[in-house]
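Hi V.,

You were right to ask for the full record rather than a summary. Here it is.
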Amino acid sequence: MAKRGRPPEDLYLKWVKGKEETIIADCRNGADNKKIAERLGCGLTTLLTLGREYPAFKVLVKDGKEVADLKVESALYRSALGYEYEETVTKVTINKDGVGQTTHVEKKKCHKAGDTTAQIFFLKNRKKVWRDTTNVELTGKDGSPLNDPLSHESLRAEAIMLGVKYDQ
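Predicted structure:
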């Protein structure tokens, strides 16, 4: 007996085939999944289905996004350390008699100091000692570790007493 309803369609052929270069270019330029879906003319759910069902599409998007990620990492690193750049200043002056003008182009080297926010962000992501994590070990009244499992309510109460955020 034949199946009822719409015949299954090949999503890859419909939405991706022939548009691979466009997808890679969009990913390299920082497009997120929503923008890629808009560019292809499909919905976000269809795009996510493509990623699940077609490994080639998943690799295509992943490789494209990796290029954008590397560019941002490089820019963050450069911003954290500071850098030298050349600035061109063009000055135009009008002669005293009001006729004619003189153009003076001046190039000067400038230094952009390292951005402390970028430095902190970089270190928190690369070095464990810089991370904002706190390990809390609950102990009994006698100082021994608690071996019995605690309910979420009692853990939440202990966390509040210690001033620690508890999400469950």
